[in-house]
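Q: Can I see a sequence and its folded structure?
A: Here is a first one.
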Amino acid sequence: MTPGELLLLLQWFDSQFPVGGYAHSGGLEAYAQRGAGPAQVRTLAEVFLASGGLRLDLAACALAWRKSPDPSDLERLGAELTAWRPILGPRESSLKLGRRWLRMMRRLYPDQPIPSLRHPHHAVVVGYWARLLGVPEWGVLLGYGYSALAALLYAANRCMPVSPEQVQEIVRDLRGPLVGLVEEVCKDPERNLWSCTPAWDIRAHEQALLTTRLFQS
């Protein structure tokens, strides 16, 4: 990876990149109102990597990176990702982030081709742009994965009795599993395009019904 590509990833996945990624908890806030604390957050973060939304998104990002720039190929991938997200909140947050990403790319790179997609999921859009701008597949997957994991844990810090120091300890311990997941996805993204977290899906649905919320979803 070149210095320019690294700087591009740092820009894309910075918390100040204006797409609203840190306004979503993915259902974590519902766990918070059930009394979850540091031990539960660590378990949820491990599940997020092993069999949850992060595996699904990394696989979609890799497939978007590998597909041709033909919008029909990206559209089919986006439709499949929509089908994998049965809960409205996480599904709409993924689409919302993707639409904001496309708007930012139109502003930053007006001379580049901008696909028109009905299912512009965040992971699909990021993978497409990484390939278009020459960012290596493994690099964008690591950047995406770390950013998604950090967003989840920072949400826990905001809505649960979890300190910033505890968040950093969890990040430290999950670096290895994250690298392993990226390597696994790179070997066969099609095989990794799945998620299975029924309890988390129930909490994500419950979150939309909470009377008070910090996060959009």
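Q: Show me another, different protein.
A: A second, unrelated one:
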Amino acid sequence: MKKFLAALLALVMVFACTLSIAETVDPETIPDECEATDGVFKLAFVTDVGQLKDKSFNQGTWNGVKSYAAANGLTYKYYQPANGDQATDDDRYDAMKAACDGGAEVVVCAGYLQAAALEKAAKEYTDVKFIFIDGWAMGLKNVAPIAFMEEQSGYLAGYAIVKEGFTKLGFMGGGGGTNPACCRYGYGFAQGANAAAAELGVNVELKYSWQYGASFSASPELEAMAKGWYENGTEVIFACGGSMFSSVVSAASANDLFVIGVDVDQSYESETVVTSALKGLVSATEWAIAKLYAGEWDAIGDAANNLGAADNAVGLPVDTWSLEKWTVAEYEALLASIVNGTLTIDNTVLEAEAIQTAELSNVTVIYE
């Protein structure tokens, strides 16, 4: 993981950020609570659905905020919209308003569900800069959208797991099939699995579902579904959706089987995790915040900031994976082919049942 984190931190170099980012501080050691003697918190984070400490998307983004703040002596605070996974646009706007009224110079908002509230807040607080993680341009110069090429990371995970010898796969996605990031992860995963299966001359089964994942939360229903998959032959499930991870891990542990993590390296959370499909949430968040303080906001405000393998922003954690048959050298060669454009991966956002129409020669998709 150290090698991958170093590569992700190189994102700062790629985009010529002029501010120093602390590379040696573990974000988890930075307190979540920050004291501000004047009551002003200059960096703010508004969580997506789920908990701050979801061991995935929220936590990774928050770590980026904390890391930049700690390295540059800035105050910081997180805001969780009211009503948890049932939060409304008004709840999200209220959280953003509280952040702006609290003196925030930058408000980092995680997740596509923030869009309507973020647009409203950005139009009202024109002097505040907003970073929209997993977002898109809104025609507002004070909003910098940061998106990732999750299809590349998903492809690498799917390819690796089939090369490792798994042929009974599962994908459980968050967002109910309408979250672009999870859709890209899932479609990339299917493409990677198909490519590896074709090379090996084997057929792969892929169970594919958005059930019980709309809120990205753990639930007894989700755990029961995952347990049923494992008991009926599924060997490994790509748990793609924040706190959903804990339900899938519980089911895997009960059956001595395996999980693929998402967004951050989740191997530290469970021995069931074979590998994780990563995206550079910490480094990308740091990089975007740094653009403001370097006087370079215009380069990212209302721009298409779409980060992938060529930016060291997606990949697999080679130092912590438990793969034994697919080597790091083979991984690096495949990653290089994505970087140099030899290998291109379809990034079509496939919603709901559309995965069933994908042309996959060696993968049979069982949509549930």
